[in-house]
Amino acid sequence: MKVSKGEIFERVFLNEPDIDLHIVQEAGSRVKIHVINLPGDARDSRTSRNSITIEQLGEGCTTELYGLAYVRGDEKVETETHVLHSVGGGESKQLFKFVLADRAQGGFYGELRIAKDAQKTRTEQVNRNLLLSREAQMRTRPQLEIYADDVQASHGATTGQLDESALFYMQQRGISRTDAYRMLVAAFLKDVLDTLSDTHQREELMDAIDRVVE
User: Domain containing 90: what range?
Assistant: First the structure.
């Protein structure tokens, strides 16, 4: 699909099993996309595969891609992004967070390419992951291809476990381990939810996460 000059395209995908999106941006257009995966009622082997490709073909485009996945049981979520800066003066931001419990599996592949003529481009790509069990698995592979020399580009990817010292600290202050656990997971995901434009939707998703975290 095409986002024409100066237009704004904003979309939230919630628990959609397979996303295959290809967007071409014209000058001055803005794209903001959220991909959110929360667990179902049954601990099944549901698999979600998400693929998003954005091509900035006009100057001064803005692209924002956000992802949040909390999966458990034998569920799998795989997300693939391709952001292509073909001309200069554009901006892009990617923030994807995964929380994996039980035997859940996650995958993030993020391609960011800045063409030779795409000077004055600013980009950021971040993937953070939290493993809640020894059996959970996460694969992350950021890939940056930068052919211009006057750009600002940063990326980062981390995978870790819940901070036991933080859990202990909160329990020492009268918070049950279950509540502390839930609060830490919610805090980990909060910065993705904070980017949602719809305040009501943000609050509903915060409540939904609070209900599913165990």
Answer: 2-161
